[in-house]
């Protein structure tokens, strides 16, 4: 086992470096994991730009992680060196009312591995053994790296209720929006429209199975969506979470419909049309992360081939080029950018 390891440090979007630190060891109940692949999330780039309300700088990224168990700590059963694992990064107390009812994704003391604690964009990391899932036989590392980003849409779609036969609009064709498209289709949505400002992203949404892809800045977006779907819009998934997208969602959704806020909003006040929400009995609900059930569904979806990995994973960079990976993640032509980690 090496004495020193590399670990990415993000001070700002223009100051992303690789530091060298002593190698960790696994404590009671922990696994020591060697990173194989780790994704750059929208939360990562928001944080690096100083825009994320819950991720202060500097931080050590890496919550979308796939790796191989290098060693087990005392008291760990069921894992052995060589096991391939996917990190489920929510770290929860297990004692609060939310945790006791199984909703540990909204634990009152929630922290997130790779967001508020050092993550997996490194050679080796430790994590509690109950915070990982096994990679199924036959699933590649690149496929496994999409489990965490897909689990968030799976959870969001579950919160929308039964989508069988429903008409759905997804606002935003970034990584999460495109994976919401896949999750909603799997859940039985009959017609799905995706919106985005960029033509290239709209074209990708169509390749991934959207029934329509509409310009997000269209003055008549509501009418275009209804015509494209051939029905009133039952559910809107807002993967942008800004004032304009919330206004669009409120206009788009039918009376008695539901808005699921998936994107991370900016800190502070966001105006909403409470008059319309009240008068039309529109339900507005937030969604945060996932639980183990969502992970299991995401793993099954990817194993089934329901997610086109080649369309979603658009670039990979070695650990030493993490700064380039962050820059690529901000480029409109990319969807999911991954960092691969080879032994130094």
UniProtKB/TrEMBL annotation:
Gene3D superfamilies: Medium-chain alcohol dehydrogenases, catalytic domain, NAD(P)-binding Rossmann-like Domain
Keyword Oxidoreductase tagged: yes
Requisite cofactors: Zn(2+)
SUPFAM superfamilies: GroES-like, NAD(P)-binding Rossmann-fold domains
A Pfam match: ADH_N
Catalytic activity entry: 2-deoxy-scyllo-inosamine + NADP(+) = 3-amino-2,3-dideoxy-scyllo-inosose + NADPH + H(+); 2-deoxy-scyllo-inosamine + NAD(+) = 3-amino-2,3-dideoxy-scyllo-inosose + NADH + H(+)
Listed GO MF terms: oxidoreductase activity; zinc ion binding
EC number, UniProt record: 1.1.1.329
Enzyme class (EC, first level): oxidoreductase
Signal peptide: none
Function: Catalyzes the oxidation of 2-deoxy-scyllo-inosamine (DOIA) with NAD(+) or NADP(+), forming 3-amino-2,3-dideoxy-scyllo-inosose (amino-DOI).
Family: Belongs to the zinc-containing alcohol dehydrogenase family. DOIA dehydrogenase subfamily.
Protein name (database record): 2-deoxy-scyllo-inosamine dehydrogenase
Species of the source: Streptomyces hawaiiensis
């Amino acid at each position: 086992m090496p004495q020193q390891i590399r670990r990415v440090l993000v001070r700002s979007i223009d100051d992303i470096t690789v530091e060298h630190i002593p190698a960790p060891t696994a404590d009671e109940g922990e696994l020591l994991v060697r990173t194989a692949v780790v994704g750059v999330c929208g939360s990562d780039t928001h944080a690096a730009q100083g825009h994320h309300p819950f991720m202060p700088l500097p931080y050590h990224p890496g919550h979308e992680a796939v790796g191989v168990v290098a060693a087990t700590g005392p008291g760990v059963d069921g894992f052995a060196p060589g096991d391939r694992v996917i990190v489920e990064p929510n770290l929860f107390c297990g004692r609060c009312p939310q945790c006791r009812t199984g909703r540990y994704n909204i634990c009152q003391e929630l922290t997130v591995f790779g967001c508020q604690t050092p993550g997996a964009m490194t050679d080796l990391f430790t994590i509690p053994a109950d915070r990982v899932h096994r990679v199924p036989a036959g699933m590649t590392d690149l496929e496994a790296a999409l489990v965490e980003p897909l689990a968030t849409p799976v959870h969001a779609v579950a919160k929308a209720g039964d989508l069988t036969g429903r008409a759905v609009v997804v606002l935003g064709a970034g990584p999460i929006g495109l994976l919401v498209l896949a999750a909603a289709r799997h859940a039985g949505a009959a017609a799905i429209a995706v919106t985005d400002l960029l033509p290239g992203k709209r074209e990708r949404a169509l390749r991934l199975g959207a029934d329509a892809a509409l310009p997000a800045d269209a003055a008549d977006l509501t009418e275009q969506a209804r015509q494209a779907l051939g029905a009133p819009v039952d559910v809107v998934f807002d993967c942008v979470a800004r004032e304009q997208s919330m206004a669009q969602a409120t206009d788009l959704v039918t009376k008695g419909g539901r808005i699921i806020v998936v994107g991370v909003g900016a800190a502070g006040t966001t105006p909403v049309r409470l008059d319309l929400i009240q008068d039309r009995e529109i339900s507005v609900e937030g969604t945060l992360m996932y639980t183990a059930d969502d992970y299991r569904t995401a793993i099954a979806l990817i194993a089934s081939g329901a997610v086109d990995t080649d369309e979603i994973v658009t670039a990979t960079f070695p650990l030493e080029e993490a700064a380039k990976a962050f820059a690529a993640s901000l480029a409109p032509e990319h969807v999911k950018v991954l960092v691969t980690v080879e032994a130094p």
